[in-house]
Amino acid sequence: MSPTAGTVDQSEVDRFSAMAAEWWDPKGKFKPLHKFNPIRLSALRREIAGHFGRDSRAMDPLTGLRLIDIGCGGGLISEPMARLGATVTSIDPSPVNIEVAKLHAAQSGLEIDYRVATAEDIAAAGERFDVVLALEVVEHVADVDAFLHLVADLLRPGGLLVVATLNRTLKAYGLAVIGAEYVLRWLPVGTHDWKKFLKPEEVEAPLQAAGLTLLDRRGLSFNPLLDSWRESRDVDVNYMVFAARPKD
Question: How much of the chain is in helix, strand and coil states, percent to nearest 5?
Fold first, then answer.
């Protein structure tokens, strides 16, 4: 069955599908994600565990939690979440991405429910999750408000949603587009469309309208002198929004 199009921007799917073979190459076209991932994973581990009253220092603090990774690509987030104990469903509209992700998970000995699907497909099936991750996805969809309402609907009462994206600021244009694509050549030219970057309130307002409670907003900042990422309160470029569905 083909995934439902809905909020999917097919041109974006095609572009990332063309790079799919390089998802797990730390020196390839997704090198920035590999450098970015450790600090992002640290934040996710802490925030998810804390939200559900777990000890983030435990080996498997997410055991018993059902998690969905929307727009999972090659599985760079899905695999660590599975290692932390979560029962992971990972979706992507690109069959090529899913095949790459399945192969790598099998080689890693991990059980992850990878599907060629969209958020619309999962919502239509009535599936609900304790944790919903939409990381670096919303800036690539065709209808932001519709997408955010969809992902909010996937949350169980008491569940946690994490949306990560790029801010539509001149600073983000200079660093994430001009710097990363044209100067440093970290990413292929055209990876990001600055006009699709989102102000935090453009993410948060639809989530509140969908009945979620905003919990926090965190920035992720790059230090070029140290060649490293860190968490911060600076949301001018990369940021994460944490929101929850109230318990019944």
Answer: 40, 25, 40
What does pLDDT average to over the chain? 88
Confidence of residue 129 (pLDDT cuts 50, 70, 90): very high
Contacts of 197 (CB under 8 A, 6+ apart): 139, 165, 166, 167, 168, 169, 172, 173, 176
Task: Provide the token pair at 49.
Answer: 């565990």
pLDDT at 33: 77
- Helix, coil or strand: residue 16: helix
Strand order in the sheet with 87-92: 113-116, 87-92, 66-70, 129-135, 155-166, 238-244, 213-223, 228-232
Tell me if residue 134 falls in helix, strand or coil. Answer: strand
Distance between CA atoms of residues 123 and 98, nearest Å: 19
Per-residue pLDDT tens over the stretch 180-235: 554 445 556 556 677 888 999 999 999 999 999 999 999 988 776 677 889 999 99
CA angle 226, 76, 207 (to 5 degrees): 95
Q: By three-state DSSP, how is residue 99 classified?
A: helix
Q: What is the CA radius of gyration of the chain?
A: 17
Closest C-alpha to 45, from 89, 76, 83 = 83
